[in-house]
Design a protein that fits this description.
Keywords: Membrane, Transmembrane, Transmembrane helix. The chain is an all-alpha fold and about 260 residues long. It is built from 8 helices and 2 strands; from the N terminus they run ββαααααααα. A two-stranded antiparallel ribbon has the order 1-2. The radius of gyration is 22 Å and the shape is elongated.
């Protein structure tokens, strides 16, 4: 019920009430799913970062003791693993959530949107950790008089360029998560053979983001192989946005009308 200017109660049409209830329920399911996927990924992600630090510490100790330290240790470990960790978690997490999500009253649309939100949240948080670790390492290297430069091509020269390092990891982590989510849902919807054939188009956003940022193990060599010039921050961000939108759209396409397998106990 609402009130008009004269203070009299005006009945709200039943269809409008139902539509409002549906929107409210969808918003609740979106928030719940995004929170669940983000927290679930980070519960394992804490162990991932602990392992990263242990490996980086061991490598750094050995290199210092053998006098072969020639660049960042953290960047080498993070650039080669963070995005791939999220790629795998992207395959697993939405796939594990969809049947329970819909059975609990959610919709495919709310799952799609919650997966988009999760990609951004994980991209932001993982990028923040990666950039912070790189910056701390840069400070330590500077204090010890060691070379803080990276041992492979990156859009940034060293961990001191914390803003650029954050941007690189933000786009890598978000796009890789969504690409993994698309692949996982592709297998769920299309089966083994169809899902396998669909891997190639679902990996196109990964190709785009690697070419845009030209960073890490694959980006720069890949860009050189196809004849691209050195990346600049502005063009890299534009390319990263295109890759992110493409990855989000791919997940939307494969999920919007997927048949939901029944939940069994």
């Amino acid at each position: 019920m609402t009130e008009n200017l004269a203070g009299q109660a005006v009945p709200v049409p039943r269809e409008a009430q139902r539509a409002a209830a549906r929107r409210a329920a969808e918003q609740r399911s979106l928030r719940t799913a995004a929170w669940s996927m983000s927290v679930g990924t980070w519960q394992i992600g804490v162990w991932f970062w602990a392992i990263v630090l242990i490996i980086a510490g061991i490598i750094g100790y050995v290199e210092v003791r053998t006098d072969i330290l020639d660049g960042s240790v953290i960047d080498g470990v993070v650039s080669g693993s963070a995005k791939f960790f999220l790629f795998v978690m992207g395959i697993i997490t939405p796939l594990a959530s969809i049947a329970v999500h819909v059975a609990a009253g959610g919709t495919r649309r709310s799952l799609i949107r919650s997966t988009w939100c999760t990609a951004v949240v994980l991209g932001l948080t993982f990028a923040l950790v990666a950039a912070a670790l790189g910056y701390v390492e840069w400070l330590v290297f500077r204090a010890q008089g060691w070379s803080p430069e990276l041992d492979r091509a990156q859009l940034y020269a060293d961990g001191g360029q914390v803003g650029t390092a954050f941007l690189v990891q933000l786009f890598f982590c978000s796009v890789y998560w969504l690409a993994g989510a698309s692949i996982g849902m592709g297998y769920y919807r299309l089966g083994v053979w169809g899902g396998t054939f669909a891997i190639v188009p679902f990996l196109l956003p990964v190709v785009l983001v690697e070419l845009a940022f030209q960073s890490g193990y694959f980006g720069r060599p890949f860009a050189q192989a196809v004849g691209l010039s050195d990346a600049q921050v502005l063009t890299a961000v534009i390319g990263g946005l295109v890759a992110l939108v493409a990855a989000a759209f791919a997940f939307h396409l494969v999920t919007r009308s997927v048949a939901i397998a029944p939940v069994t106990s």
